[in-house]
Amino acid sequence: MSEPQHRPLSLHPDPLPELISQNIEAIVALHTNAERNLSRHQRWVETATHFFSRPAFLYLIVVIVLLWTLPNVAPEQWNLPQFDPPPFGELGFVMSFGSLLVTIGVLIQQGRQEKLAEQRTQLSLQLSLLSEQKIAKLIALVEELRRDLPSVQDRIDPEAEVMQQATDPQQVLEVLEEVLIEELLEIQNQPACID
């Protein structure tokens, strides 16, 4: 598989720096791949769900309800047959069924959006861990340079010594879980406040 060609994006008259262009291209590729991998049924559901979220859908529902109820409320005035007299049982069924379909469509779309958000979160986490490792390396190099320069007074900086060690994400996760469990147990063991 060949490496993708990186080119400066032309969103602005001045070309963006190469690294920023690569980052933008990575984000665009993430979204493009997500859209490209949509099934025909998923695309149809999302198109319908997009319509449900527009003001035109609200107006359509209002018009349908009016066209349904008016002939059933005053059929004598317009000389129309009553097909669903009050309390509009059939209209209630149609609206309930429509609400069910809209709810399912929204849930399907939210599921895909959550999956995409999870991918972005994972990407962000990976980049943060990489940045932390790079920063630790830079601190180590600066400390080494400081020790090697004869014109700089040699001193021990305990904070820099700690910061030049890359953080172990697994260790941080374990400590975080331990602290959270302790906090939750402490909260559960506290007597309940009665107002």
Structural features, described:
By secondary structure, the chain is mainly α. It has a domain of 136 residues. 73% of the residues lie in helices and 0% in strands. The chain has 7 helices and no strands. The longest helix is centred in the middle third of the chain and has 60 residues. About 3% of the residues have low confidence.
What is the average per-residue confidence, as pLDDT, rounded to a whole number? 81
Helix and strand succession? HHHHHHH
- Could you list the spans in which at least 5 consecutive residues all have pLDDT below 50? 6-10
Strand content: under 5%
Roughly how many Å is the radius of gyration? 31 Å
Question: In a nutshell, what does this entry contain?
Answer:
With 195 residues, the chain is mainly alpha-helical. The chain is built from seven helices and no strands.
Task: Summarize the SSE layout with pairings.
Elements lengths: L17 H19 L3 H13 L2 H19 L1 H4 L10 H60 L9 H6 L5 H21 L6
Helix pairs in contact: 2-5
